[in-house]
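All the exercises in this workshop are built on plain-text protein records. An example says more than a description, so a record of this kind follows:
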Amino acid sequence: MSLEMRTDTETSDKSKSNIWKYFTKERGQDNKITAKCNYCNAKYVVVKGAITNLWTHIKKIHVSLFGLSTTQRTLEQYDLPFTIVEGWLKWILKKVTGGFHLVSADTIRCDIIQYHIDIRITIQKILKETLGKLSLSLDIWTSTVVKSYMGITVHFIDNSWKLQQITLDFIELEGSHTGKNIAEELITVLNLYGISKKINSITTNNASNNDTMFSYLELWAKDNDIDFSENNQQCRCFAHVVNLAVQAALKELKPEIDKIRNLIVKSRSSSQRRKKFSEISKLNGVDDLLPILDVPTR
C-alpha cells in the first residue's frame, strides 16, 4: 500500500478543489458548511467559501503532507546523519552558492519526526475505516551488535478487496524476551493504532516465549472485554514448522553433513584453498561456484 505524501512540486497548488483532499465537507442542520480534517478530525466553519484557515491548519499542523525537502530525502535515502548539514558542509555551500541557506540538524530531525507522526495518523485512519478483520505477524531479530528488535506487520483485505500489508512498528526490545514483555510491547502498538478489537490472528514462530505471550494476551483481552483466545487467534508460521521437521530429519545424516560443512568452512577461510577448490572443480567438470554454508534456522 502506498503511503507517500505530497511532493515539493505540489505545494504551490492551492486551488479550492485541492484543499478537499485534506478535509471532508460536512453540512449541518443549520445549513452551515464545516470542514473536517482527514488526519486529526479538527473542524472549521467555512464562511462564503473562504479556505485560508484550512490551508493554515495543514501547513502548521500537518506540514509533512507536502513531502520531505530535497535535503531531508537525501539524508533518508543515503542513511546520513542529520548533523552532516552542520559545520564545514554549511560553510562550503555558503561560499560556493553565495548565501545558500541550509536548515539545521534540529530542524531536519523535527521535520522527520513530524513526518513519521503524520504517516502514523494516516495508517490509523486506514485501519479504522477497514471493514474487515486484521491479521498480524511478528518476529524478533538480533543485530550483529547484539541488539534485539521486534517487527510487527498488519495484513488485511481493504474495502476494495485488495490484499494490503503495513509495517506498524520496529521496536528495540529491552530486557529479556519473555512472553510477558513481548505481549506488553504488542499491546502498546495495538492500543496506539486502535485495533485491539479487530484482530483475527497473530502469526509467530514456534518459540516457547510466543506461547507464553498468547497466554498473557488472552488474560489481557478478558480483562478488557476483547474477544481473543489463544486457541483461536494463534497461527504458527508454516515455514518455521517445516524447517523444524527438516532439521529433525537431517539429524539422521549428521556425520555426512558435518563433513560437508567443515569442507565449506575451510574452503572459504583461505584464498589458497579457494583457488585449489576451483581447480579441482574445473578438472572434474563441475561449475566453479563458491560453496555456501547453510543456516539451520533458515
